[in-house]
Structure formats: structure tokens, C-alpha cells
Specification:
The structure is a homodimer. By secondary structure, chain A is an alpha/beta fold. Chain A has 14 helices and 12 strands. In chain A, the strands form 3 sheets. The first copy, chain A, has a 7-stranded mixed sheet, sandwiched between helices. A 3-stranded antiparallel sheet of chain A has the order 9-12-11. In chain A, α7 links the parallel β3 (122-126) and β4. In chain A, α6 (104-116) runs parallel beside α7 (132-139). The longest helix of chain A is centred in the middle third of the chain and has 18 residues, at 187-204.
Amino acid sequence: MNEQMLQYGRARSVIRELFEYGNQRAAVVGREKVYDFSLGNPSVAPPPQVNDTIRRLLDETDPCLLHGYTSAPGDPVARGQIAASLRRRFGVDCTADQLYLTAGAAAALSCCLLGLCEPGDEVVVFAPYFPEYQVFIHTAGAVMKLVPPETENFQIDFDALEGLLSPKTRAVIVNSPNNPSGAVYTRATLERLAALLEDRQNRWGHPIYLISDEPYREIAFAGVEVPYLPKLYDNTLVCYSWSKSLSLPGERIGYVYVPGSVEDSEAVYAAVAGAGRALGYVCAPSLLQRVAGACCDMTADLSVYEENAKLLVTELTKMGYRCPVPGGTFYLFPQSLEPDDEAFSNAARELDLLLVPGRGFGCPGHVRIAFCVPTERIERSLPVFAKLAGRYKR
Amino acid sequence: MNEQMLQYGRARSVIRELFEYGNQRAAVVGREKVYDFSLGNPSVAPPPQVNDTIRRLLDETDPCLLHGYTSAPGDPVARGQIAASLRRRFGVDCTADQLYLTAGAAAALSCCLLGLCEPGDEVVVFAPYFPEYQVFIHTAGAVMKLVPPETENFQIDFDALEGLLSPKTRAVIVNSPNNPSGAVYTRATLERLAALLEDRQNRWGHPIYLISDEPYREIAFAGVEVPYLPKLYDNTLVCYSWSKSLSLPGERIGYVYVPGSVEDSEAVYAAVAGAGRALGYVCAPSLLQRVAGACCDMTADLSVYEENAKLLVTELTKMGYRCPVPGGTFYLFPQSLEPDDEAFSNAARELDLLLVPGRGFGCPGHVRIAFCVPTERIERSLPVFAKLAGRYKR
């Protein structure tokens, strides 16, 4: 068999391992005594319109049509609804035929990377980063270039970025709001990024694509702007998923948006679609395509995430944790209280407090707290966070 | 962008082109005067239990759980139900952890090929064949070796096969019941194939995997046996989809079954799962996983396909067409009445009769008739088939 695939299949995800450890401990000490912040699985229900839409579709639609193949890019009606939503919300001139519906953001990223990259091309990623990027980039035959983290505000270390850009740079992936830091890139950060990439495009005479991976776009807290990248940089491709905004991560529904501003946009779109074909995606799940079309202007009730963020930042800061304030998502990324984040995660685990070490995200010395949990779990966990902090005080 | 992906994205499928032509003609001459046999889209509704199960799941299941991530291989309950069905129906000792749920058979094949093949390996395919095989094999970095068709009975040309097997053969793909020929491989054919592969495995000292792509397994006509390959050859992997049996092609739900008899089966399973990860599949669509688990012992009412097959074979034979009798599927694959199947398809198209040339399936001199249509369309089309035949009589 293929050794690389065997390794991918056997590699235990640290996150999954922590989660399963939590389940085992829950069986021993009781669920309420395990403070599990390992998994980024939305904790709020989808808006009721999701299930209502499914029921309506089952009642009103010819089942052969509803469950049948759509065209590879997706149902034209659903794409039209989504395009209209993007036009209304962001002032872009998106049309249905610029949208390619996918089985979630992972599929969207995979299609963009394989569609854009030739073997040996370089793809720039900013730490901290979602670890599957490396897998998808490798599958596309490209090489990941990792920009070290800017741990003060989790914006971009531009000196490091400049050093990593090269004539072989085909694409740059941006994930804002960010998993795992919770940071949102400011307009200033993104304008500077756009200007830098424009300059390098001109210097090297070929496009550098900015891939905006934005499943957390809708989870931005009060007063935080999430600038729309296609308006700042022409060669932007947007990868979206309703996993977090509608709380549908298992249903695998998202899209690639190839704006008309992208150089040779029709060909780029065709290459993305061709990659979808090559990867074995035939069409995005047909029932959920229609649900996304009907519900794309809604979100689940995301307010609990902001509430949780405030509570955690306030209380952990009091205890001496250094917590960058997240602008969105449902992640907090404090410094570990000892330099070795894995040792710190293990110390937390001894208290049944499950935090993911930052090194897997390319950012050691931090831990990720996934606070997509009921607020009362956070309240119950505070004394444990305090106890943990106590162990590091002399 | 990537030139190969651009080409995949731009390549017009002959089947889709015919289908779209049919829609254009329908607007001009009326839908009832276009005899469209181009697309393999099931024409019978899913069994009512499918939609009933969806409604029940919406009513009874916590929506966060129902629409949430499952583990990558799929929901354990659904996998348990499917494994039990396979044990009951085929007498295998399948367990839940030998099943890896996928987004349809295309995903299943892609995961097997990428999981099993190293770059440069060879994968044997029998003509006539589903054209996407070539794309998936190429994505896995492997090379397709095509065994020419045995056009008498659409079984296997063993002399040709022997000549194409080599120490580089990693896998052999079998699709029975077959798209596009409708043929079902007999037990004798499959036993001979198994014996030959056993011999070559022993000679070359490494496994040759038999990948059984069987989305049409449930569409087999009265008296036709579809032997279960894992019982004939140890190193068999099964790729299944409910697209045809439950009429759910758009929903993308299927599985890979890695039997315990496969050499190093745990590692093979891990490699398949690793390939799923590398291709950007996170899990199969979660709602449909549960539907498949609940409905895996049912099928849509498939009787119309057998009725259509009989009607077409009887009537076309009378007109002088040479029609191998299909053992299953919803395809008939008669000889074209002139050697050039494309010219013949064009002649049929002039009569608004839409038949797919066989050359795209690696079998020129034939055309595919997809008879997954209402029987009355077949009845209306018979005079047109007769008129077409008349043009080739002196």
C-alpha cells in the first residue's frame, strides 16, 4: 500500500486522543468532572429553519430530483441564492457560475490547491494553522512554507513572510477568524498583505492566489470587522463552509467562490472543478445544497460563543494566564504556563482539564481552548484553571 | 493553474453534451418527441422509508449530534447496521470496523486507489469501463492498463488480461453488473480471474488487490447470480454506493469494505482512511450515514428496469440490432449499425434519439442506451429505433 497514506491513516490526532481520553475519564469520574475543551464541534443547534427546510423539501420536491445528481458545480437555484446573498452582504458582483459547491471547506481547499498548483509549487501558510493544510498541500504535490507566528497579536510577521515568498509561490492561505488563535486579521494587516502580494505578482509576472479559508467568518464578536478579501485583492479565492455558522459540520457543505476579478477567472474556475473531479467529488450532497441555498442568510444562535469568550478571558487573565482576546471563532489560545506546551497540557490533563498543545498548530508555548461548550462547563472549570495556575506559582 | 486539472474541468462529457442537446431539442420539438437515453440517473423514486427515516431522525435526534461530525470512518451505529446486513446477505464475517463510509462510490474508489498505489503502479481495468476510472487512477499516481473488450458476452478476455498483468500490477478493478454493457460476470469468469490473480500473487510475492466496484449489485435480473467477490478472492476490497439501489445519487453515500481476509487488512484499512483524509473527505454526509444504516436492507422498486430491459432487447432484436442481453443495471449496449459508433450516434441524434457512443467506454462499435426512463418513453421510441435501422438496410 501507499506508505504516506498509511501514515496519514495511522497518525493519531492529538485532538481526537484527548477527546477520547475525556470520554474514558467521564466513565470513571463522571461527565461533569471532566473539563473537555478539545474538539471544535459546534455546541449550539442549527437554526430551526434548517430542519424545517429539510421537511419542506421532502414534502414538496420530487424525490428523484431532490436526491438526484446535480451538475458538478451544484444546483443552479441554490447557487443563485448563495450568490445573491454574497452580493447583498459584501457588495461583490458574484454570480451563480462563479460558485462551485463542495463537500465542506476541506473539499473546497483541496480543490483549490490541486486546481492551482503544479508539482513543486510553494504554498504559504501562517502559524498558528489548521494542521490539515499540510496534508492537502502535499496531496496537491506542492510544498508548504510556514510563516512563524506573531504571538503578540496573532497578526502577520511581514518580515518573515517576505523572506518566504519566492517566484515559486503559487498561493497564500489566510484563515481569519483563525483556528486556533481566535484572532481576526485587521484591515491594515490585510491591506499590507494585499500590497505585498501585488508587488510580488508584478515582479515575478504571474498570479499569486490568496485562498481565504473562512468557515468562521460569521463568528466574529461585537465591533470586530472581518474585511472581505475579494474586495482587497483581485486574485482571491474564497473557501467557505456552513459547518460552524449553521452548525452542520457533519453534513459537508460549502463552496469555492472564484470572483470575476481573478486573472483568467473562467480557467481558474474550470481548474478548481477539474480538481473536484480528479479527487472523486461528483457533486456536493444534493439535499444539503438546497438547505444551504435556503438558509445562507441565517446562522445558528452564535451569541454563546461571545459570552464564553468574555468569561474565559476575564477569569483566566485574573488568574495570571496571558490570553490574547479573540476577535471571533470559538477558540482561545493562551500561553502555556511553562514553555513546554505538551508538558503543560499533560499537567492540565491530570486535573481532567483537556487543552490541546499548540505545537501541532505550529505554535508551541500555547494551548488551544475550544470553548464551543455550554457556558456552565466553563463556570465549573474555572476553579480547575485556578488550581492549575497555582501549581506554577512559587 | 494546473494544466491537467484545467483539462479535466474543461473536457465536455459526451454524455452531458447529449443530455443538454436533448433539453434544447425538447424546447423546440416538445419533450415527448425527444428520446433521451443518455444519462444514468435512476428514474424510480427512493423507497418511502428513505424520506420517512429522514423525518424520524429530524424528530428524534439531537440536531447537534445528527448534523455533527462523525468519526472519519463513519457513525458506529450505522456501520454496525451495514455490517450486519452484509453478514446476513453474503455470509461474510464483516464487522463495523472493516467499513469506511464514503461520499459515494467515486470517493470509495479514489480512497482505495490512492491508499493502495505507489506512483508508477499499474491498475488493470476491463473495457468497456466507466471513464472516470482513468481520472481516479491518474490522481493516485498510477497507470491504467486497459484489457480490450470481449464483445461476444462481455465477460473477460483472459489472454489479453494475462498479457497485461505484470509485477507492477497493484490492483484490478471489476465492475459487475457492468456500466455500460449491462453484463454480469459469471461465477466461472470470476473463479478463473481469482485463480489467475492468486497465481500471479504467488509468482511475484506481493498482493494484487481486486477492487469490486459494485453500485449496480442490487440491479440484477431474475435468475442472474452476482457472486460476492470477497468469498472468491481474499484480497478483495468492495466499493459500494446506494446511488442506484436506493436512488440517491446526489446524496453521495457509500462505503469501502476491507474484509479481514485481505492481507494486512488493518494496514490496508488505515491506508484507505489516510487517503480519505488526504483527498479532503472529513466524513461521509452525517444525516445520510444514518439513512443508509437504517435502509441498507431495502431498495427502490427496481422492477421497471427489468421490464425495460426485456422490452428493448425483444423489440430491438426484431429490428436487426445485435443486443447482448443485460444481466442487470439499466444499460443496454448494442452494436452500432455502422462500424463508426460516433457516426451512428449522430445519425440517431438526427431522429432525436440520444444514444452514447461506446468509444468513450473503451469499446467502439457499440452505443449505450440508458434505459432508466419511464417505460412509455421506450414504447414511444421503438418506431424511431425502427426508422434508424431502416436507414441501414438496402
